[in-house]
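User: Can you help me understand a structure? I only have the sequence.
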Amino acid sequence: MSQYQQDLDSIAELKNAQKGTWNGINPEYAARMKLQNRFKTGLDIAKYTAAIMRKDMADYDADSSQYTQSLGCWHGFIGQQKMLAIKKHQGTTNKRYLYLSGWMVAALRSEFGPLPDQSMHEKTSVPALIEELYTFLRQADARELGDLFKQLDAAKAKGEDTAAIQAQIDNYETHVVPIVADIDAGFGNEEATYLLAKKMIEAGACCIQIENQVSDAKQCGHQDGKVTVPHEDFLAKINAVRYAFLELGVDDGVIVARTDSLGAGLTQKIPVSNSPDDLAAQYNAFLDTTPVNSVADLNDGELVIKQNGELVKPTRLPNGLFKFKDNTGFDRVVLDCVTSLQHGADLLWIETEKPHVGQIAEMVNAIREVVPNAKLVYNNSPSFNWTLNFRQQVFDAWSEAGKDVSGYDRAALMSVEYDDSELAAEADARIQSFQADAAREAGIFHHLITLPTYHTAALSTDNLAKGYFGEQGMLAYVKGVQRQELRQGLACVKHQAMAGSDLGDTHKEYFSGDQALKAAGEDNTMNQFDV
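Assistant: Let's start by predicting it. Here is the structure, written out as tokens:
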């Protein structure tokens, strides 16, 4: 028996027990409303989606072609439309997630207005966006199920077989999918991280991504000036997130440990080492230092540490930060990742300066020497110039193979004059296969783009404004937007229904019967799209 039928029967039994006082209640309508609101709380969502992620991780371990993907969404409507599109074009939401980008929260959701990605936005805006995203996804479920119920009623009225429609209802695939949610560097100390993580999980987050930068000096991973924290500080925050998951009963919640060490050359403090080769000693070994032979080698206020039986002074900048040795980023990344996985993290995130499968694979292979099932969440970042990067990769590969590249200027490969060239075609083919290649060769379980919908909103608005305020006038909207919505079958062309008008009409009918004042009558201009 389906859940829908079980609910219908139990509500009918409950109604009968009320001795006639519930005669205005239709058990079938109540069962429908219950099915349309499958997830009652954010914690229901977090538990459901955590199980999905764990299964997907196991699937990937068995077969690297089973990687997962997401796009960053800065509004509930954007996330809803993304999942509607996935179901329409791919037929299933399987292996597709949402990504919540701290960059986009800062740039688009702060009451201060647009902000850089430096953890200056209100931290409460992060769980608020998670809740908003899931509100829109649940509404997408309710709308689609409502349409199926209408089809069911119409088939019943005509005396037609309803088995196929009922099967669609009983086996309905929800739009609710996992969110990988960015908590930045934790927005404060480990207690602050715990408190925010709880709010995020209560809103529905099954997966929290945290980075090893200093919280009050946090920078975007693709900008300069990044400062990392000692491992002990970072592990305390990983523990804080795990405690939040366990307290709320999301025992299989997922933690993504992000390292920015590849591009970070500074640390805020020198941790205390209690024994040779402990984590603090390993961290301190990367410090840039100079030997101290006598007190004369020191200026007032300078700091001295003992390393390998010798006294050295770490290089300290005027702002008090300490410098790492040059060319240690790779080794620091590997140590960061191994340490995080050995202390409670489930997945890794390595922020790189370019999308290069070989570079990522080299680091992952070093990590897997210690943790064989290590796998990544990877940022297919809009901060990369993908066209130039891959054209240069092809140029270099061809040069190394002895192929003639004299017709190309490596420094100018972004030029439009190369767009139709053989090199450009090869570069585009590598971009197209990048995710599959990196999943297979570089341990990437989840591919995401942090802020794609920021750029798509800007591009589509620019195109519309260019024509509408120019010679095309209204044709710019009709030809470029509305006609395309109709031709491509976007449900959003009926924006009243998408916003919940039809759902509201159905509920009014449930509540008021024939007295219901409904919006979807013959004078509703949305009917013009029933063609």
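Now, to help you interpret it: The chain has a mean pLDDT of 92. The chain has 18 helices and 14 strands. Let me know which part you'd like to focus on.
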